[in-house]
């Protein structure tokens, strides 16, 4: 039977004749044939501010002390409700994210000092066997995540006791793998928790090498059994959703090869506000999906992928250098910390505007003579309307 071509130029066959693996191969072939880093970064900028028009975040509003950032609401519709707690104490800044194949993730912020008990309660009651940590405890002199277990001693957090059962030195210097023992007072049954700490993913950019992330992903899935997997960075939306997006995207394109990454972005943001926070994270998601398909033997590694990866790596290195320079300037001005509760990096950091322009310049093809579009500085406060977003009537401030 003859193939058909859709509006996006993707060759497809009738659904009943195509396997999930063939669908994924069709999608990847189209991406490698048409996608350019410049095209994908522009695609992200065009959809950067997309969000649900209507949602509620009542419990987020009621618990300001349990929120790390005051501009990342936790939507009520799919928030994780802490089990065995009454309604006055069942909040944690965490969201359920369900994959097309039914597998579930919990995306959450890095624990605060006063939410570590809640974090371990969630892990225990939801029977999470795997935790993925994608940030450092401190980045650029600011706390991103409170230490929620001790590497050298058993420690208690409320009614929970956490001890290190096993440490492994991975060949990957960016990854620390630890097996934890989690127990609850009054309950003899303990849980084994596999903790993966990938500590070489800087905020708002992305790793250079996708294979390390893919290997961790496959190991985590194996240890999780039937899930759920808890993933966190600092806010739990940028690095976290990019990572979870790998699983979501692969399963979705197996169903429908006409799926675009914009579709994936919107699906993720329907489950977790602000998912994927930068252009490079968006490009990296494409790279990881293709890398996973290669590792799984669904497609063969092509020269076009190597060229695409090389271009991405070059841009990312330059952007990371630019970010370091910006942070040095901010430290000199003593503007890294503020008296108010910190906003997430993309809305407060003046360097993000320069970062956007740099990505545009570096991503643009030499053949393209069109000047780069000017991008409005993201450090300006996002203009929200009553209809488009949640109004926050009370907001307690504190140092990060």
From TrEMBL:
* Compositionally skewed regions (Basic and acidic residues) per UniProt: 373-392
Q: Name one GO molecular function term.
A: protein tyrosine phosphatase activity
List, alphabetically, the InterPro entries matched: Oocyte-zygote_transition_reg (IPR052782), Prot-tyrosine_phosphatase-like (IPR029021), PTP_cat (IPR000242), Tyr_Pase_AS (IPR016130), Tyr_Pase_cat (IPR003595), Tyr_Pase_dom (IPR000387)
Q: Name one Pfam family in it.
A: Y_phosphatase
Q: Where is this region: Disordered?
A: 329-400
Record's compositionally biased regions (Basic residues):
330-342
Q: Where is the Tyrosine specific protein phosphatases domain?
A: 208-283
Q: State the SUPFAM superfamilies in the record.
A: (Phosphotyrosine protein) phosphatases II (SSF52799)
- Matching Gene3D superfamilies, A to Z? Protein tyrosine phosphatase superfamily
Q: Which residues form the Tyrosine-protein phosphatase domain?
A: 40-292
SMART domains noted in UniProt: PTPc, PTPc_motif
PANTHER family the UniProt entry points to: PROTEIN-TYROSINE PHOSPHATASE-RELATED, TYROSINE-PROTEIN PHOSPHATASE-RELATED
Can you name this protein?
A: Protein-tyrosine-phosphatase
The species is: Caenorhabditis bovis
**What is this organism's lineage?**
Eukaryota, Metazoa, Ecdysozoa, Nematoda, Chromadorea
């Amino acid at each position: 039977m003859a193939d058909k071509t859709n509006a996006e130029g993707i060759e497809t066959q009738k659904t009943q004749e195509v396997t999930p693996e063939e669908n994924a191969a069709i999608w990847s072939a189209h991406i490698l044939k048409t996608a350019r880093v410049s095209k994908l970064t522009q695609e992200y900028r065009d959809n950067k501010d997309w969000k649900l028009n209507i949602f509620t975040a009542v419990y987020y509003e009621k618990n300001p002390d349990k929120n790390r950032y005051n501009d990342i609401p936790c939507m009520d519709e799919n928030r994780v409700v802490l089990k065995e707690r009454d309604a006055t104490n069942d909040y944690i800044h965490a969201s359920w994210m369900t994959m097309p194949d039914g597998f579930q993730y919990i995306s959450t912020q890095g624990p605060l000092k006063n939410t570590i008990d809640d974090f371990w309660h969630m892990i225990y009651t939801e029977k999470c066997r795997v935790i993925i940590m994608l940030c450092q405890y401190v980045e650029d002199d600011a706390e991103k995540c409170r230490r929620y277990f001790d590497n050298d001693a058993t420690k208690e957090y409320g009614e929970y006791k956490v001890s290190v059962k096993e440490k492994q030195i991975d060949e990957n210097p960016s990854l620390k793998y630890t097996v934890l023992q989690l127990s609850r007072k009054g309950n003899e049954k303990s849980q084994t928790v596999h903790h993966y700490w990938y500590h070489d993913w800087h905020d708002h950019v992305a790793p250079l090498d996708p294979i390390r992330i893919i290997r961790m992903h496959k190991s985590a899935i194996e240890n999780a059994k039937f899930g759920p997997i808890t993933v966190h960075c600092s806010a739990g939306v940028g690095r976290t959703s990019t990572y979870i997006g790998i699983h979501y995207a692969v399963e979705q394109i197996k169903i429908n090869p006409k799926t675009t990454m914009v579709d994936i972005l919107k699906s993720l943001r329907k489950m977790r506000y602000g998912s994927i926070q930068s252009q490079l994270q968006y490009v990296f998601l494409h790279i990881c999906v293709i890398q996973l398909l290669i590792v799984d033997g669904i497609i063969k590694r092509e020269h076009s992928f190597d060229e695409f990866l090389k271009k991405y790596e070059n841009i990312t290195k330059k952007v990371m250098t630019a970010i370091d320079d910006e942070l040095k300037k901010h430290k000199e001005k003593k503007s890294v910390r503020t008296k108010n509760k910190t906003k997430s990096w993309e809305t407060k950091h003046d360097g993000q505007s320069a970062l956007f322009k740099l990505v545009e310049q570096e991503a643009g093809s030499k053949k393209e003579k069109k000047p780069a579009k000017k991008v409005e500085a993201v450090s300006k406060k996002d203009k929200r309307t009553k209809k488009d977003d949640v109004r926050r009537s009370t907001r307690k401030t504190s140092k990060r």
